[in-house]
């Protein structure tokens, strides 16, 4: 199949009104699969850092290729944009905008998407995806709404102490949760806006927390740095995991 078929994609831009976010709205980008039909319902992948997932992760192109190559059922991909200056406040569970963002995501953004597109709402037909702090907030959205979501993709999740404490705070079993976790072996001293962290250790610690609570994990450590070059390269394998586990 020619490269033009892979890159000739349909991506719509949307603006979701919000009562939870101080700005009163948030931008989205929505990838539609080839042959999108409003009488058919589709699984959906929700991405944090939407602009980065589309521009640097090339998720629309990668999903398009997998669909056309019969490696994945047709899905929608929704990228939720973020103001980088407010990203930490929204994505960390102890951030002062976190609760508002989580409520916006589930109570406003998802119903808006469902009102505009024919997406499936079952827990096993949704993937929450994110890199770094995006992986963190994806996990915590799933934890905040037990059994509302089943699948989480976390690439180099920024699981700082507050995140791990919150994940370990309950004795409730997480046997309904499946997560794909990957981290780069060259991420042992990554500088963030809140300090320098060993992301390999952070992910190993969160893996132990989640497994103790019964979550089912696909966990890998590979050569890679804390950057989109690594995550873009690993994204097809993560998408294939979702296709295999959830979509059959």
UniProtKB/TrEMBL annotation:
Transmembrane segments annotated in the record for this chain: none
Pfam families attached to this UniProt entry: Esterase
Highest taxon of the lineage: Bacteria
Signal peptide: none
Name of this protein: Esterase family protein
Organism: Paenibacillus sabuli
Lineage: Bacteria, Bacillati, Bacillota, Bacilli, Bacillales
């Amino acid at each position: 199949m020619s490269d033009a078929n892979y890159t000739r994609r349909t991506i719509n831009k949307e603006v979701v009104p919000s009562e939870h976010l101080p700005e009163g709205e948030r931008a989205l980008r929505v990838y539609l699969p080839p042959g999108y039909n409003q009488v058919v319902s589709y699984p959906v992948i929700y991405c944090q850092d939407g602009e980065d997932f589309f521009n640097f992760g090339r998720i629309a192109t990668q999903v398009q290729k997998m669909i056309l190559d019969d490696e994945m059922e047709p899905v929608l991909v929704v990228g939720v944009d973020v103001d980088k200056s407010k990203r930490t406040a929204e994505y960390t569970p102890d951030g002062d905008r976190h609760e508002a963002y989580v409520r916006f995501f589930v109570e406003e953004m998802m119903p808006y998407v469902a009102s505009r597109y024919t997406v499936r709402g079952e827990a096993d037909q949704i993937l929450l995806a994110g890199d770094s702090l995006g992986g963190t907030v994806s996990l915590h959205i799933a934890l905040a709404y037990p059994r509302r979501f089943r699948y989480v993709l976390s690439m180099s999740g920024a699981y700082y102490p507050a995140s791990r404490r919150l994940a370990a705070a309950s004795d409730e079993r997480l046997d309904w949760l499946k997560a794909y976790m990957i981290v780069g072996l060259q991420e042992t001293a990554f500088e963030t806006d809140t300090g320098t962290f060993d992301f390999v250790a952070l992910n190993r610690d969160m893996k132990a927390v989640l497994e103790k609570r019964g979550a089912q994990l696909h966990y890998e450590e590979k050569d890679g740095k804390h950057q989109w070059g690594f995550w873009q390269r690993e994204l097809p394998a993560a998408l294939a995991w979702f296709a295999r586990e959830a979509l059959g």
